[in-house]
Specification:
Blueprint (H helix, E strand, L loop, with lengths): L7 E5 L2 H4 L22 H5 L22 H15 L3 E5 L2 H4 L10 H16 L3 E7 L5 H7 L6 H16 L6 E5 L9 H5 L9 H26 L4 E8 L2 E3 L4 H23 L4 H10 L9 H7 L4 E6 L3 E3 L3 H4 L16 E2 L5 E2 L1 H15 L3 E5 L17 H19 L5 E7 L19 E3 L11 E3 L1 H11 L8
Parallel strand pairs: 1-2, 1-12, 2-3, 3-4, 4-5, 5-7, 6-8, 7-11, 11-12
Antiparallel strand pairs: 9-10, 13-14
Helix pairs in contact: 7-9, 9-12, 14-15
Length: 476
Amino acid sequence: MVFREDFLWGGATAANQCEGGFDKDGRGLANVDLAPSGPERFDIISGEKKMLNFEESYYYPAKLGINMFEHYKEDIALLAEMGFKVYRLSIAWSRIFPNGDELEPNEAGLQFYENIFLECRKHDIEPLVTITHFDCPIHLVKEYGAWRNRKLISFYERLCRVIFNRYKGLVTRWITFNEINMILHAPFMGAGLYLGEDDDKETVMYQAAHHELVASALATKIAHEIDPNNQIGCMLAAGVNYAYSANPEDVWRAKEVDRESYFFIDVQSRGEYPSYALKKMEQKGINLDIEEGDLGLLKEHTVDFIALSYYNSTVQSTDPEILETLSGNLFPSIPNPYLETSEWGWQIDPLGFRITLNDLYDRYQKPLFVVENGLGASDTPNETGYVEDDYRISYLSKHIKAMRDAVTLDGVDIIGYTTWGCIDLVSASTGEMKKRYGFIYVDLDNEGKGSMKRTKKKSFDWYKKVIATNGENLDC
């Protein structure tokens, strides 16, 4: 057998990209609601442009998502038809605590997620729940400055205690923060941070990161106390960084970029700040406000597994002329001449996936869970509404084979694999519906127009076969 018998095959979504219902059942607004589509989206999600309320001249795709708020039963039934063992989804913090700092939760929000989890269990699908998939109630941003303020630890703790108790037995696998390293690349989207002109930006980001790391350890502690069956994971946006050349300067630069992300997982998995990070902060004059008990909490309550997203590898250099060719997404890269790229400029690198899995397992020696992997592409339905997405099948089959090699040839311990955007949803980086990842086509365009009808793509039946054979049959 290639993969373990209880390997968890499935797919992943995020509340802010698919749920919609932004004003239903008492839900409050969140930072992720206020990221419009269009050219200014990056300035807003990166915290460079301030937007803390809806403005009439913008379109906000998270308001509608794909309206999973009303379609979740239909959508989960389709996932079950594919044979999903696990469905990774997230909770909208502001649906449970609309402002974030209330003493009592919103019962309608709690019931909504309970209904979803029950629906999953009805179909023998295990929910894998991300507690915070970038969501931060906008009241916490306006009133407290989001995660730069230590008070958010106690608000997050209250959220965790409520959901761990309410969903005990329904959910046993949790991820504390989605792609926690994204705080350095898109701080408003990642942690609700607006960075003003007078801010020492790196100090603000690393102090906020410390608060999230303490909150993550506290969540791990509480989860294990409430239900010893709970398994808690951390998560990073992963991807190997290659040196552009054999020049040791390039090799060192690639290592430095790797460490920018590893830093978070070093703390969550090993339980302490790595020496390289402490030295870097010392050299930059970053003095973290670390309170008594923080370091003990981090040390005593490390995570059970390492979750990761992987889409592409990147290339690093110190040569100014080479650096002028930088392009790509939130993790810019020098073009790699040995790799093909997607429509959105992401470099397609299945072997890089295997390398990344090996790097993480070698470093932490804890089980890995691949919770995002996929290809964003413009799908064009034919006259009958069918999408023949052979390009997606090709991408996923090559990456699953690379994962299989990591397990069978390298001995990497992997719990499961959930493709990103198993049903079409709004892209986090661009705000587009056009950038589709799913096995299920949703009739909706970039302006939120369409019937929202769900239609199976060619990849739907392909992935169903992959799951049924536990990853052994990857043929089209």
